Amino acid sequence: MCGIAALQLRNPLLRPRMGSLLSSMMCQIVDRGPDSAGLAVYDTPGLVSEGTSTLSLLGRDQGMTTAAITAGVAALLPADSAASVKLVGDTTLVSAAVGTGLLVKAVSETLPGSTIIGRGEHVAVMKSVGHPMEIAAAHGLEAMAGSQGLSHTRMATESAVTAGGSHPFSVADDLCLVHNGSFSNHATIRRGLTREGVVFDSDNDTEVGARYVASRLKQGDTLEEALVNLGKVFDGFYTLVVTTADSMAVVRDPIACKPAIIAETDDYVAMASEYRALAGLPGIENARIFEPEPGKVYTWSL
Amino acid sequence: MVTLTAPESTESLLDTFSVDLADAPVRDLNQALHNAADGQSWTVTSPGGKHSLAVGIDADVTVTVEGHAGYYAAGMHQKGDVTINGNAGVGLAENIMSGRVHVKGDASQSAAATGHGGLVIIDGNAGARCGISMKGVDIVVGGNIGHMSAFMAQAGRLVVCGDAGEALGDSIYEARIYVKGTVASLGADCIEKPLKDEHIAELGELLAAAGRTDNPADFKRYGSARNLYHFHVDNSTSY
Questions:
Q1: Is the predicted pLDDT of residue A116 greater than 50, yes or no?
Q2: Of the four, A41, A81, A118, B97, which is 20 to 30 A from A25 by CA?
Q3: Other Cβ atoms closer than 10 A to B39
């Protein structure tokens, strides 16, 4: 199965409540995927800030103290880049006022064994193994503000139950992808992307989807075009939600194997695997509620 | 425990009960409905999209769900009348045997799947696979239906007042399909058939039963070409 809950807040007055709203949605999709979970939050004060790149690293314990990581990264960056390290739940966040490329290089040299699970100016990505609500609580989701939030509860089928195999997959700046379903031809597509120089972090089928979307965006596709192209290349079952710094997209496979329901109001766009995850949202009684059509790409921008 | 709210006034409302799912678990609701006596009227509030609401009802009761229902609402329905004042999730009225189920909003995939009898009314749209493997149920949809609807349909009637998605009636055995709008494509062995007086008459009855005023003469009828009934030796290499 797997469960998805995603929220884009159009009304700035709702943004302080992003975490509590997403948390209430997420607790309704736990039994669709109880083995591991992940979160992506956008523009959350205290985690990311404008003009600063933030990398999300898998795991709390990187084998070094936060002070040692900060010193190691700072030594590899220009003097005024204000490197900082923060531990949030099972995630290590490294920030500095440099481009993500430079920061990735510094972090990879300082922590050669680390896995980067999120990058960008706007997004923080957190994932772990265990009960999804315990993971959310450990990261303090309830108290987080933000513009967009994305959560995924995983029931693993195509690769092992590991934190690295949890969603979202975030493989380019501020880009996140979550998936309910399975891709059947991911190995073939993975080989093609590998030949083009793309490097993978896991054996997961969804990572191939995320790397493919990132590759299409890099070649100039809009988010909508990238997902239309994904539909032409990938075989399998999927409901996907993709978020960028300022937009959210939903697409289902052409035979609609996996569920999705959307609620839209002037204040927000919310997507979930099941309606019960949307039932507690403010103003839901007056929302436009619909199931996305099979094979059609829906996008919303802030 | 189910919270039973006392009737507001006496006498005529003595057989009226309500269950608030903000407090009571779904199992208690369903157990109470299984214990219910003929003639009772039940109202379910705060459904919140919960799954398996009002399933397996086997008494002549009236149930009203005030809000959206989750998966498998009114599944295995035997008797009585269920109305959902909202949308319904996957598998509405799955394997309905008789009685009536009415959704005022939209229904998700596989509505009335494998239904043997009774009437399922959906005022809004129905998703993919509506009436899949239907075996005698009557279905009236006010809006559109999704792809692969009436797949392997064996008996019953499917009425669509809007448009039908791709592969309508694929591998259909029998069952009669009436569509007022467009059909994206017909599935294997499903063809358009003439709309005769007898069909206009039965369609009129179905529309009236669903409380609709559409003109039966505006519909087209589809059904089985009956070419897949028998094995053809020419196809032996396909198996």
A1: yes
A2: A118
A3: 11
pLDDT at residue number B232: 80
State the Cα angle at B149 between B60 and A238, rounded to 5°. Answer: 110
Contact between chains at B106 and A275 (C-beta distance less than 8 A): no
Regions of chain B short of the pLDDT cut 70: 1-14
- Best residue in A275, A278, A288 to probe B by mutation, most B CBs within 10 Å? A275
pLDDT grade for A281, boundaries at 50, 70 and 90: very high
Model pTM?
0.91
Q: Which residue has the tokens 């927000």?
A: A268
Give residue B1's pLDDT: 46
Given a contact cutoff of 8 angstroms between Cβ atoms, the answer to whether A152 and A3 are in contact is yes
Which residue of A259, A276, A290 is in closest CB contact with B90? A259
Taking an 8 Å cut-off on Cβ atoms, the answer to whether A289 and B87 are in contact is: yes
Q: What is the ipTM of this complex?
A: 0.87
- On whether any CB of chain A is under 8 Å from the CB of B144, the answer is no
Closest partner CB to A274 (pick from B70, B109, B147): B70
Check CB contact under 8 Å for B128 and A294. yes
| Contact criterion met (CB below 8 Å) for B51 and B72 | yes
The domain spans of chain B are 1-108, 144-227
What average pLDDT is seen over chain A?
96
Q: What is the pLDDT of residue B235?
A: 78
Summary count for chain A: helices (H), strands (E): 7, 16
Active-site annotation holds for A2? yes
Contact between B49 and A274 using a beta-carbon 8 Å cutoff: yes
- B128 and A259: CB-CB below 8 Å? no
The span from the CA of A257 to the CA of A215, in Å, is: 26
What domains can be seen in chain A, in order of their start residue? Answer: 3-44+132-301 (3.60.20.10), 49-121 (3.30.70)
Q: Which of B110, B105, B138 is nearest to B124 (CA)?
A: B105
Task: Name every chain A residue with its beta carbon within 8 A of the beta carbon of B89.
Answer: 259, 274-275
Q: What is the pLDDT of residue B3?
A: 53
pLDDT 10s digits, A271-280: 999 999 999 9
Per-residue pLDDT at B10? 46
Contact status of B72 with chain A (Cβ, < 8 Å): no
B147 Cβ under 8 Å from any chain A Cβ: yes
- Adjacent-strand bridge partners of A41: A124, A149
Query: What's the CA gap between B112 and B139, in Å, rounded?
Result: 7
A38, containing H or E segment:
strand A36-42
Q: Which of A256, A274, A290 sits opposite B109 (nearest CB)?
A: A256
Collapse the DSSP code of A135 into the 3-class scheme (helix H, G, I; strand E, B; otherwise coil) and give the result. Answer: helix
- Can you spell out the DSSP letters for A191-249? HHHHHTT---SSS-HHHHHHHHHHHHHHTT--HHHHHHHHHHH--EEEEEEEE-SSEEE
